[in-house]
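Researcher: Go.
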Amino acid sequence: MSKWVPDLSHVQKLKYEGAIDADGHILEPPDLWENYLEKKYLDRAMRIAVDEDGLEYVEINGAPSKMLRKGFPSTMGLMHHKDPAMFEPGTEKTYVGNAPFGSMNAEERVQLLDAEGLDAALLYPTLGVLWEAELDDRELTLAYCRAYNRWIVDFCKDSGGRLVAIAHIPFDNPEEAAAEMERAVKDGCKGAFTMPFTWSRKAHGDPVHDPIFQKAVELDIPLALHVGFEPLDQRPNRFENANRFPLLANITTAEGLRHAFTTFFDFGTFERFPDLRLVLLEAGGGWIGQWMDRLDVMYHKTIIGARTAVSRPPSEWFKSNCWISCDPDEKLIPAMMEIFGEDRFVWASDFPHADHTPDYIKEIERMADSVPPSARRKLLGDNIRDVYKL
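Model: Structure:
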């Protein structure tokens, strides 16, 4: 259990019923991979270790992370904090010690859902959207994913369906990834997600990944693209010392997802798999209007569109095969729902990560108030129920 147990009577409760968080996160236990990895990989298990100065760090494949600074683990669940001092490294600050209520314990998370008035939450990892960007060993990557997938099913299994397990699937080694997706879904996962990059540098929509798409269709589950860390040599790096521009880094972190998503049209992925369901997560939702406008103009009016692999405008495929999560504090979503349909949009908290608003219940209420009742029910929960068949 977390050391800090708040008075949940002070948690704001959503005034509408039936809501589901489309993209909540958990903080994986620091010994997850030591407990769930196959024996042959245990000496390379991911773990949180302590250096000679007493600072925690993430160890990946037997070596300290190059992308996560020492002391960083204690900051992974600080959604409700803005004091810069909380984010400075310190020997007294730990990953487990700073884990907020509901982030590392299933019973606590259900209690938090009750306090917030939410029916359920789809769960995604925290370390799991970070480590893959610096592990180019494809065999070990798949082993790490298998371990997490087994653990998240165990984490969610006694929640009465309130906590929804989603499998982590790497896009490299498509046949093996498809096999792991099938195993994880049969074990209890309700969908799968992948990162917005590939180590092979093959685009997500490329037919080389067809075994994954075919398996998702066979299993009747959606596949999600989720924002996360990307390999340093695949990141845009227009300016020197770009890591010192936190606003620029935060706003552009979704570019990889947008690029990956667009390749589904370049390669005609939905033409090959018209029943494929694709979910876009943690990139916001307002951008989809400009993106679809531009793709449709290219399709209808230029030589670029004449050379693409799609037989109908990209926006039509979006309206039939894609769903997108929005941040509760976005202002453009009512307009986007009017343009693209009420059944394409879902909302997400990103709890407990510090780069999203902590008052998400207040903000999603405001957004829900601004759309018609039929759209409100869909935005808050029914769209997620439909796409994940909950």
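Model: Residues 8-28+101-388 form a domain with the TIM Barrel fold (CATH 3.20.20.140).
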